[in-house]
Design goal:
The protein has five helices and eight strands; from the N terminus they run βββαβββααββαα. By secondary structure, it is of the alpha+beta class. It has two domains: 75 residues, Phosphorylase Kinase, domain 1 (2-Layer Sandwich); 103 residues. The model has no long low-confidence stretch (mean pLDDT 94). The structure holds adenosine-5'-diphosphate and magnesium ion (MG). InterPro entries: PhoP_reg_network_YrbL. This is YrbL family protein. It comes from Malaciobacter mytili LMG 24559.
Length: 204
């Protein structure tokens, strides 16, 4: 297969470790490329393993951007994901953006968060990198939203703990609970910041 050509004009955003590009041949997909040196912590490989693990267990993936495997690009190996898009085809905003700009009321935010929590607990899904920029707030119908996870699933690194948390229900539940508490702390901080009108949020 020929190599996919990426360039800066296709760049959507950069996270701590990966750059996210619009797929030049498919508007509904993105390609994530590791840009950090060293590769000791390959988030692409890890997420690929984890999402396939969930698929093998026939897990409900309705709050996750699906992942389709690796392709070769001029910037190296990339992992293809569904692009977060709203019902009208417009790009979805991060949950942090919605909080910072008070686009949803606190009550609406709480409802979406509670739905996500139930989803993670019911389906035993590890959401570990709990930054609010890893959650997107998809408008699925006019004024109707749902939170989807675009990053931060599984674990931050490979290893024994990841294996444990994946394979033993008791540990999975424990980890989900712990990470959820972390997420809520980050969320409450952002809410306070938005209330105080403290801007700009550095990353949205
Ligand atoms: N599926 C997606 N659709 C649209 N934008 C995305 C998607 N996944 C990630 N992004 C954007 O790209 C940024 C970086 O991607 P991310 O997977 O979070 O990288 P990292 O692992 O380095 O944090 C995200 O913060 C988000 O703004
Ligand atoms: Mg991220």
């Amino acid at each position: 297969m020929s190599q996919i050509q990426l360039n800066e004009s296709l760049l959507i955003a950069k996270g701590g470790e990966r750059a996210c590009y619009l797929h030049p041949l498919d508007n509904s997909k993105v390609i994530k490329i590791l840009y950090t040196q060293g590769n000791h912590n390959n988030q692409n490989k890890l997420e690929y393993i984890y999402i396939n693990d969930l698929k093998r267990k026939k897990t409900d993936l309705s709050h996750i951007t699906d992942c389709y495997g690796f392709i070769s690009t001029n910037l190296g190996e990339g992992l293809v994901f569904d692009r977060a898009l709203n019902y009208d085809g417009k790009p979805t905003k991060s949950f942090r953006y919605m909080v910072a700009n008070k686009i949803l009321t606190l009550k609406e935010q709480k409802k979406l968060i509670e739905e996500l929590k139930q989803y993670l607990e019911k389906n035993l899904i590890l959401f570990v990198d709990t930054s609010l920029t890893n959650l997107f707030c998809q408008e699925i119908q006019k004024d109707k939203y749902k939170i989807i996870i675009v990053d931060g699933l599984g674990s931050k690194r490979m290893g024994f703990k990841f294996w444990l948390y994946r394979n033993f229900k008791g540990y999975t539940k424990y980890k989900i609970k712990r990470q959820w508490a972390k997420f809520m702390k980050m969320y409450e901080k952002d809410v306070k910041r938005a209330e105080l009108g403290k801007r700009p949020f550095t990353r949205l």
